[in-house]
């Protein structure tokens, strides 16, 4: 009575496979990736279908996406002559406009990052927006959390977005209890992409890796630092990180981006209104180009822009990242740029946070070294994410130089070209070079293991 005819079950599987393949053909994936997925879908039956819908990148609906054309439009756009004309044209095609900013500072060490954030929280008068991949409850972040609770009692609006996987709110009862306590005290806090929503929306493999700290919609910090002692202290074996701090209309862009993320995971009653504003630049303003990445943006804008920037570099490119696991097309651009005479420098830590990532890093650096790319391994675990082009402009944000950050995660980055920031970034790079080693201890380049490990890069 309750038995299911195997023939009907087989028909259902075939229909699911057909739907999955059709969906795959409409996705903007490489031919190699499409062929691999088609093989898995057709020859592993239901397992391949389930895996496809669980971990492949799914863009948000148009209603839930961040509209660069709408919320990115300001009346007084600025242009930057330091940005090459062709790159400028590409930015315009993606509705990436120049935004005015000033009072900029590149913060280069963890202790200074903590001090700057702590001071900004204490000084806030109207609102605080925090988006952090990791939100820990150690003694350093506890000090920040205590000030946030105080601000809430003063009537200041406090909104916090954390990533459920990065903060481990899915498996840690302690962290769940602490977040609930902050909610009980009146702080608006949400975990991004929890397990149930991930399964329901096809975003199981996506992470909100953005780091945005915005105060009174006037002061903004972006970069690599999470809210944890591993990024806010100078203790031994912590990550070495950086943030950039600025004010001006660029801050309002990131405030709207935060609001978009918040409204996506909050109920309608908890939604925040977007900011309607006009540019108010004075004579000494500077110009930057903010580039959001992720399923809320309709194209892989950052990936395309940074690829063009590297391919069109005239003299040198410096890449700073904890991970160097670029997609194949970007890897080829780097190799060809080096072979054509551009000096390419990749700065990564000697050891990261696991054997898998270490092996992935060494696998890719070993390949590009054969094409003349200089690899610098830092003694400390560098966590900054920077791309410096021709000593003229730099990308600063949360984007690791790996497959997941470039093509899957929610991320932020901006292009800065003012002399002060470029000079400070170059000084930071020189410090990393002076505290480096020339070899990778204990690494054995087993090619078959390296090739197999690369298959895990989209989910590592």
UniProtKB/TrEMBL annotation:
Signal sequence bounds? none
Q: Which residues form the PLD phosphodiesterase domain?
A: 204-231, 378-405
Annotated GO molecular function terms are: phosphatidyltransferase activity
Classification via InterPro entries: PLD-like_dom (IPR025202), PLipase_D/transphosphatidylase (IPR001736)
Q: GO biological process: any one?
A: cardiolipin biosynthetic process
Which Gene3D superfamilies does the record associate with it? Answer: Endonuclease Chain A (3.30.870.10)
Query: Keyword Cell cycle, does the record have it?
Result: no
Sorted alphabetically, the keyword list is: Membrane, Transmembrane, Transmembrane helix
Chain ranges passing through the membrane: 6-26, 35-55
- Tell whether Chloroplast is among the UniProt keywords: no
What PANTHER family does this protein's entry cite? CARDIOLIPIN SYNTHASE, PHOSPHOLIPASE D
Q: Which protein are we looking at?
A: PLD phosphodiesterase domain-containing protein
Q: Which organism is it from?
A: Candidatus Francisella endociliophora
Q: What is the lineage of its organism?
A: Bacteria, Pseudomonadati, Pseudomonadota, Gammaproteobacteria, Thiotrichales
């Amino acid at each position: 009575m309750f038995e299911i005819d195997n023939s009907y079950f087989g028909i259902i599987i075939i229909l699911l496979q057909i739907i999955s393949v059709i969906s795959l053909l409409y996705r903007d994936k490489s031919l190699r990736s499409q062929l691999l997925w088609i093989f898995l879908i057709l020859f592993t039956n239901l397992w391949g279908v389930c895996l496809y819908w669980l971990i492949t990148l799914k863009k948000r609906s148009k209603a839930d996406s961040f509209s660069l054309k709408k919320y990115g439009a300001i009346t007084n756009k600025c242009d930057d002559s330091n940005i090459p004309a062709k790159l400028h044209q590409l930015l315009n095609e993606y509705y990436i406009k120049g935004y005015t900013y000033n009072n900029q500072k590149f913060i280069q060490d963890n202790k200074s990052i903590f001090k700057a954030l702590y001071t900004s929280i204490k000084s806030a008068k109207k609102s605080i927006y925090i988006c952090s991949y990791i939100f820990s409850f150690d003694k350093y972040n506890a000090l920040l959390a205590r000030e946030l609770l105080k601000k809430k009692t003063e009537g200041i609006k406090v909104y916090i977005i954390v990533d459920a996987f990065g903060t481990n709110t899915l498996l840690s009862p302690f962290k769940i209890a602490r977040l609930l306590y902050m909610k009980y005290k009146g702080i608006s806090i949400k975990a991004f992409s929890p397990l149930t929503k991930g399964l329901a929306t096809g975003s199981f493999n996506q992470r909100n890796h953005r780091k945005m700290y915005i105060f009174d919609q006037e002061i903004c910090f972006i970069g690599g630092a999470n809210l944890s002692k591993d990024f806010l202290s100078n203790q031994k074996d912590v990550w070495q990180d950086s943030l950039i701090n600025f004010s001006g209309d660029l801050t309002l862009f990131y405030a709207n981006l935060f609001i978009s993320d918040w409204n996506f995971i909050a109920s309608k009653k908890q939604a925040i209104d977007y900011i309607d504003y006009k540019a108010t630049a004075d004579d000494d303003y500077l110009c930057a180009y903010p580039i959001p990445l992720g399923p809320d943006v309709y194209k892989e804008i950052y990936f395309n822009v940074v690829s063009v920037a590297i391919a069109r570099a005239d003299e040198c490119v410096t890449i700073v990242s904890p991970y160097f696991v670029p997609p194949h097309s970007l890897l080829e651009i780097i190799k060809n740029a080096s072979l054509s005479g551009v000096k390419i420098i990749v700065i990564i830590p000697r050891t990261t946070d696991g054997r898998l990532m270490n092996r992935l890093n060494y696998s890719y650096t070993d390949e590009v070294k054969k094409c003349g790319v200089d690899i610098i391994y830092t003694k400390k675990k560098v966590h900054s994410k920077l791309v410096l082009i021709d000593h003229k402009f730099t990308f600063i944000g949360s984007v690791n130089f790996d497959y997941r950050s470039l093509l899957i995660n929610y991320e932020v980055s901006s292009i800065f070209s003012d002399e002060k920031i470029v000079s400070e970034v170059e000084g930071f790079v020189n410090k990393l070079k002076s505290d480096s080693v020339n070899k990778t201890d204990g690494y054995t380049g087993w090619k078959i293991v390296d090739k197999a490990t690369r298959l895990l890069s989209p989910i590592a």
